[in-house]
């Protein structure tokens, strides 16, 4: 369960995603999540409006149990595809398509001019990040 925290977004969301769990988000915090323009969080998260939860918190378990198994499976598959875009340390991230892993999305959002100028793909090498021959992170 991912209730709102002291800030708009809670680390609980990323902990749930890292654990491979479908996040149950209480409130509208999803609009503040990382890379929300490129990641469809509603394809895998269950979002409950905060006013509904506050009014009837006892209905949460019943609502979750009513989700059909096929829908749970679809959301789990969607989560598996989205994890490399959201989390930096996702094992087996080497098979991600260009522009779909965390580091590439971060560079694209932090350095949009490089993305517009057609810079080469970001590649990983011993924990450093490169675009072409220029080191970005070490």
Automatic annotation (TrEMBL):
<dbReference type="InterPro" id="IPR040911">
    <property type="entry name" value="Exostosin_GT47"/>
</dbReference>
<comment type="similarity">
    <text>Belongs to the glycosyltransferase 47 family.</text>
</comment>
<dbReference type="InterPro" id="IPR004263">
    <property type="entry name" value="Exostosin"/>
</dbReference>
<dbReference type="Pfam" id="PF03016">
    <property type="entry name" value="Exostosin_GT47"/>
</dbReference>
<feature type="domain" description="Exostosin GT47">
    <location>
        <begin position="1"/>
        <end position="58"/>
    </location>
</feature>
<protein>
    <recommendedName>
        <fullName>Exostosin GT47 domain-containing protein</fullName>
    </recommendedName>
</protein>
<dbReference type="GO" id="GO:0016757">
    <property type="term" value="F:glycosyltransferase activity"/>
</dbReference>
């Amino acid at each position: 369960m991912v209730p709102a925290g002291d800030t708009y977004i809670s680390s609980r969301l990323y902990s749930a995603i890292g654990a491979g769990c479908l996040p149950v988000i209480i409130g509208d915090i999803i609009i503040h999540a990382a890379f929300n323009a490129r990641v469809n969080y509603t394809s895998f998260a269950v979002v409950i409006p905060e006013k509904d939860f506050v009014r009837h918190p006892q209905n949460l378990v019943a609502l979750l149990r009513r989700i059909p198994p096929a829908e749970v499976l679809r959301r789990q598959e969607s989560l598996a595809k989205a994890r490399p875009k959201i989390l930096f340390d996702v094992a087996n991230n080497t098979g991600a398509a260009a522009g779909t892993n965390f580091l590439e999305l971060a560079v694209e959002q932090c350095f949009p001019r490089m993305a517009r100028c057609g810079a080469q793909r970001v590649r990983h090498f011993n924990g450093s990040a490169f675009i072409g021959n220029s080191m970005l992170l070490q």
